[in-house]
Amino acid sequence: MNQPPTIPPSRSQWFKIVAIALPFLFLLLLEGMLRWVGYGQDYPLFITSTTQADHWVMNPQISEKYFSENADATIGYQEAFPMEKKANTFRVFVLGASTAVGYPYLHNGSFHRWLQYRLNRTFPDKDIEVINLALTAVNSYTVLDFAKQLSDYQPNAVLIYAGHNEYYGALGIGSTTAIGSNPTLVHLMLKLREYRIVQLLTNALTLFKPSASETDLLENLMKRMTAEQAIAYDSDLYHKGIRQYEVNMTETLSFLNEQGIPTFISTLISNEKDLPPFISDSTEEESADYYYQLGETTYNEEEFTTAKQYFLQAKELDLLRFRAPQTINDIIRQLTDRFPQVHLVDTQVHLEAFVPNGIIGEEILLEHVHPNLLGYSLIADAFYQKLREEDMISRDWEQASDWEQAHQEMPITEVDSLKGVYEIMMLKEGWPFYEPITKLDATNRSLPEAIAGALAVQQISWEEAMERLYQYYYQDQDYEEALKVAEAVTLAHPNEPQFFTKAAGLALQIDDMPKANYLFQQALSLNESVSLARQIAINFIKADALKEAVPYLQYITEREPTDALSFQLIGAIKSILTFSEKESSSENDPKVMTQLAENYLLLGKENTAEMYLKTILAQEPNNERALSLMNKIQN
User: Fold this and answer.
1) Most buried in the list 26, 27, 202, 316, measured by CB within 10 Å?
2) What is the chain's percent helix, strand, coil content, to nearest 5?
């Protein structure tokens, strides 16, 4: 018999290599084809702004990387910042979840906007950028992923407030999006989600899932994200959530430290006194409810130290873990000791010193973890004081404000405040609160209440709400409230000079010259033009704020040395200011008054010039120069 031909060992080896390589080659070709046809997307943290081509904004689709259902994916702020960083810019990025976002206020109620406003006024000559990258319902996986992309964007500091969502946030241990308890495996899966093949498979699997449009989406995001509603204290899942946070935040802070980026991480606050446990273990005698009742009893007996211990124990035993365990704060404090570039912002201690008896409750919180406006301003104060302590931005904090002043000056509008109230009412109507919404009298609502209601249910945008509110106040000649609205808009649009000039004009109307000058300066720094400087100078002259007009006239002469009129105006103003600062015996001298009249006439202040001329002519009816100037005014 003929023996079958034998395959040489070398050729057999090649067959095996080709057989192994073919699937990978197919996947590579499929990935390339999907990218070529434009299927799927990349997940960069920043993309080019659609309104300002030389600015970055956070990618509005970035959160889809972390959520298994796009319907659950959240969108944060779209705060544009220049691709080319100026020399006098201090750039801050904020990382975290819904508290860092500022829920339920989202705009100027958030702690980063309180901080932005205060830093702007502490350092008016610097360009302060506080860019919020926080997203609702995310946790330390997202914080780490974002942190690793920040070094290319030249941050001067990173602020972190995160830790409540380790169980139920995206990819959390007890969430509907959990894909494992091993952080290394989860990070691998996140990397794979950037490939088009994985996106194709994910979308294909979604087709076989029950539709969420009519069921799940009727529930709030809290419920949709929660898979394990009962996670017992000291259980395996309990410790996995803590371990997840520790591993991810250690890597986050280690990376930022290695990059030389000063990082400020805050301890967390949650409602201890005014929130009964969501779910208590009825099989345990010493349950969450048991300790909460002890806390209430001892609090009413004014045994506050003991009451606080009971309230904290009740929170720790609450099976529904929307409030971070105290161990998370312990980890934060320990991690800040390990890295020289990482600084502790002990918000928990800072706010305990403010609330009655050191027990955090409804005085500063709206429900379980989200602060009210007072709470957010205090969190901002904690970060502000730590930045100052570390000599960030500058060693000169001469213009630093205290918290009371900052809290009073912050432009929080009535609509912003009411919108937060309405949104919390809607949240608490559902799981796990189930509190009926208070019926409101729709017939007697004020316009701000109506605007806030429309904003809360997303019938109008925040910008439209602010425009309606502004028109309401302006037409009612309530210029102080109109100015508050205009300033609020400048915080939301810090790169658009027209909003600053609008606010400055209102400040002029109420004779707030320091604020008008600051706002005009910001407008001119954004739009460096002679025409704008000239308009600002004219506005100040019309408002009799002559001293404030001089720097803008000098700005013009530096850029247009042939502008004789600006030189003349500077001379006229300086002459007037010199005269007004002196207690001169020559104040009734016709020659002095004639010169003043000429200067005021040059400034377009005809009424003031006429007043001096009448005084001169009362003394010297035939004064030719005075008569000539008076004739000029009358004609």
Assistant:
1) 316
2) 55, 5, 40
Is 3.60.15.10 the CATH number for 88-195+229-279+318-410? no
Cβ pair 326, 316 in contact under 8 A? yes
Task: Please report which confidence band the pLDDT of residue 218 belongs to, taking 50, 70 and 90 as the band edges.
Answer: very low
- Looking at 173-288, which runs of residues are DSSP E strands? 263-266
Taking CA atoms, 26 is separated from 18, 21, 199, 335, 566, in Å, by 12, 9, 16, 45, 73
Count of CB atoms situated within 10 Å of the CB of 509: 16
Residue span(s) of the chain under CATH 3.40.50.1110 come to: 88-195+229-279+318-410
Sequence letter at residue 52? Q
Return the biggest CA–CA distance within the chain.
Answer: 144
Alpha-carbon distance 513 to 592, whole Å? 28
CA 105 – CA 417 distance, rounded (Å) = 7
What is the rounded CA–CA span in Å between residue 65 and residue 52?
25
pTM, 2 dp: 0.90
As given in the structure block, the two tokens for residue 73 are 């994916």
Q: What is the pLDDT of residue 30?
A: 66
Range with the lowest mean pLDDT among 194-208, 400-414, 507-521?
A: 194-208
* Eight-state DSSP code of residue 23: H
